[in-house]
């Protein structure tokens, strides 16, 4: 009669396991707390505040970018004004600088309807001049402590160019190795004369 006890035979169950199950209470499941219902007016107000914050951020970023653009334009204007002259008269000069070559290149007027290019080569202490109405380049050496101004250089080279036209023919420079890269490129297709 005792053969099936505890072995799981049908209709019979161990009394000790019944007691263990009875002592433990079943777990209690509670509802998770819910957020209180937000009224429709409050939802609309929160949405309006969020949109207002986004709009303020967009406006601030726009003004910052506009300010950056205006400051760049102002810096360019100051550069143009300083090249044009302190009194604002004369034609504005165009300038290109090369840190690597240590040169400054200016486009200047040469007569009524012509232009010329002046190159300051600070590493070789040379100034070069090329008029686009004449097929010649002129160079001169300068003192490292006393670089002449653009107007003085232009006037000097134009005077030298007029002397050349009158008949003072000098021999062109044979050895172009004394010239820097920028002046060599500027004067590559024309003879070079010392001024």
Automatic annotation (TrEMBL):
Question: Where would I find the BRICHOS domain in this sequence?
Answer: 110-195
Q: Which UniProt keywords apply?
A: Disulfide bond, Gaseous exchange, Lipoprotein, Membrane, Palmitate, Secreted, Surface film, Transmembrane, Transmembrane helix
Task: Report the InterPro entries cross-referenced here.
Answer: BRICHOS_dom (IPR007084), SP-C (IPR001729), Surfactant_protein_propep (IPR015091)
Give the region (Disordered) as residue ranges: 1-30
Looking at the UniProt entry, the stretches that span the membrane are 45-70
Q: One GO cellular component from the entry?
A: extracellular space
What are the subcellular locations of this protein? Secreted, Extracellular space, Surface film
GO BP terms in the entry? respiratory gaseous exchange by respiratory system
Q: Please classify the protein's predominant subcellular localization into one broad category.
A: secreted
Known role: Pulmonary surfactant associated proteins promote alveolar stability by lowering the surface tension at the air-liquid interface in the peripheral air spaces.
What name appears for this protein in its UniProt entry?
Answer: Surfactant protein C
From which organism does this entry originate? Cettia cetti
